[in-house]
Amino acid sequence: MPVIELKIPNLGESISSVTFSKWLKPNGSTVAMDEPLCEIETEKANQELSADSAGTLTWVAQEGEDLAVGALFAKIDTEAAANSQTAPKDVGGQASTPPVEAEPEPVSQQPAVNPPTYATGTPSPAAAKILAEGGIKPADVIGSGRDGRITKDDAQKAQSPQPAAPVAQPATSNQQPATSTAFSRNDNRQKMTRMRRTIAKRLVSAKNNTAMLTTFNEVDMSGVMAFREKYQEAFVKKYGIKLGFMSIFAKACAKVLLEMPDVNAMIDGDDVVYHNYADVSIAISTPNGLVVPPIQNVESLKFSDIEFKLKELAAKARDGKLSLDEMTGGTFTITNGGIFGSLMSTPIINEPQSAILGMHAIKERPIAVDGQVVIRPMMYLALSYDHRIIDGSTSVTFLVKVKNLIEDPISLLLDL
User: Fold this and answer.
1) 360, 391, 408, 415: which one is catalytic?
2) What is the CATH number of the domain that holds 272?
């Protein structure tokens, strides 16, 4: 068949539709085999779709459109590509014949010799996000990728010189301040991204379908901070990565989860599913929203293993390269609002899990120790849980056990 129809592929049992994010190739352009054509957004991650054959591309789907799995999004005319390849051969065959009229024909060979691939100045998905966040037009950036495509590095470099621009205009005593539009009444309506819609749906579902309750405690971070300070240099020297708070909290939670299986369980209909392993999901903030990829078998991993895996997942999440498998699963979640300055919050359960631990900012506060008031680095902890499966006493005991391990990290190492 000269025309090939391209359809949205099956990306997993849980995905029935996608959002068509953007075209990477212009309508009517010539594309090569396996060349990225467009980017789609699923409920969990972004993904590029490539050409199944070389030919001329015809758009069917529009950017921002929601498409079901199996829906047609483009067509490729393979006959046009075949004609462009055979045309030079026909002209070359006529070159040996007597008629002089055949000589001007080789001018048409140039498009066939160098068929266009990536349009010059087209940004990659990661680069497009960086440029959009910085308000930079792709036309103002020189691409260093194949055929002039703008890479992530190009986009990052394009952002750095911008802050220097306002400095070039010195202020004078007679200079009037720029007039700002007062009492603006303008509205800007934008369609929610598929990931944001999914996040909203899941959060509302968790609030409506679980008996969610939150219990709080506070932890003295002096012990774990001294522990990190003492061993950080040796840790980095041996493993090549820093020891962070998240790996220590994940390890402490994994230990207590196996001791208290109710917190590590989930409800499935009328059944309760218990897990003899701790797959801890870590909340990661990305430009498109919050994602919670799990780190599997945290109870069996070393601190360095957790740190490397966390670094890998965070990098993939921010570049939009997390696979569906990497986004699936998890028996318990940890979220750290403290990196944004949150002092206290009530995290929402990540269904179908039954509990989530919220970490917060470390602040020096006066507390009573052995009858004296001392200043200590303190952190509030919040455990939100599904009261249908976890009793109040269980949730409090879990949080106290985690608190004790954090305040005495040696006991965590000794498995006490």
Assistant:
1) 391
2) 3.30.559.10
